[in-house]
Every structure is written in structure tokens, then in C-alpha cells.
Amino acid sequence: xxxxxxxxxxxxxxxxxxxxxxxxxxxxxxxxxxxxxxxxxxxxxxxxxxxxxxxxxxxxxxxxxxxxxxxxxxxxxxxxxxxxxxxxxxxxxxxxxxxxxxxxxxxxxxxxxxxxxxxxxxxxxxxxxxxxxxxxxxxxxxxxxxxxxxxxxxxxxxxxxxxxxxxxxxxxxxxxxxxxxxxxxxxxxxxxxxxxxxxxxx
Length: 202
What we know:
The chain contains ten helices and two strands; from the N terminus they run E-E-H-H-H-H-H-H-H-H-H-H. It has helices at residues 23-34, 43-56, 61-74, 80-84, 88-95, 104-118, 124-129, 150-161, 169-178, 190-198, and strands spanning 2-4, 11-13. The protein has a two-stranded antiparallel sheet with strand order 1-2.
């Protein structure tokens, strides 16, 4: 089921209007329309998304969106080498930063994940995208969309083997959705309809 977003007549995935009205609604709508499900590649870009999805675990994505710029500031724009060099002093600094989610386990996981990226021996973007499925079903209701898949479980397993933390199958699938590895915009969502219309032969 899709809903009409505030301020226009476009049909959207249900979660895009979950924030109701006001600034939060615009924040969610813009994220849905401009980012979610669109391909994201690049070492730094993927590291940031892994970090944000890890921080989101157990929370509303709206909380992360509200604090996104604070996260970028606090984690040096997610520069991998810089975050990998963080010390206990930085952990204490981040725990004292009210602008982000102050969860020690997630903060330490982000630092550990930066170190894992440094030690990968392969490009993070290529590694993550190697788990993208060849095709995806077309869903008509959010209730049909899975919280994890065989591919996300395999991605999570591989990342954990390489030293990553806080990236289980559900978080890995949220990452796949957010970075366009899968397209889970619903059948009637304007983003999906527009994308099909622009595809040759679509």
C-alpha cells in the first residue's frame, strides 16, 4: 500500500509519510524521493552508510536523519583512515556529544569497522556490491518486503568474518535497500513508476 505524501499528489511507500507533518515529514519524504534505493558506490560513501545503519539498529530511521549532519561532523565526515585512528579519547568525546546517538557499543563498532575497511585488501564498494542479487520481486505492500534475505545474511556473515561489528542480516538488508543494491520501492510508488518509465523497454 502506498500513501500520498504531504505537499503533493505523489504516491509513496508507506514509511515515507510515517513522520506526519512538518519538518520531519519533509526530511523523510526527501530521503525517500532522492536517496533511498538509489545506487550508492564509493569507499567513504559505503562506510558512512554502514555506520548510520548500524547506529539506526533498534531506533527509528528518522532519529538518524535528524542527526545525520551531526554524525558527519563528529566522525570527521566519515574519513576512514581518520576514524580508524580514533583512540579512547575520541570514544569519550563521542559519548559526550549530544548531537549523535551516544551508544558506546555502536561508537566502538564504527571505529572497529573503519579499521576493518583499512585492512580489507579490496575495495569496500566492490565487496558490498558483490552481494547484490541479480533480480528482485516487485512488492505491492510493505508487509511483503522482507527484513532480511539470503544475500543480506551472506553479506553480514562475510563482513563479520572480516572484523566488522553491528552488521547483522537485518542491518545488512537495510543497507542493501538504502544503497540501491535492491529496489524495494513499492509497485505504485512514484519513484518506481518513474524509474520504469525511464528504462528502455520499460
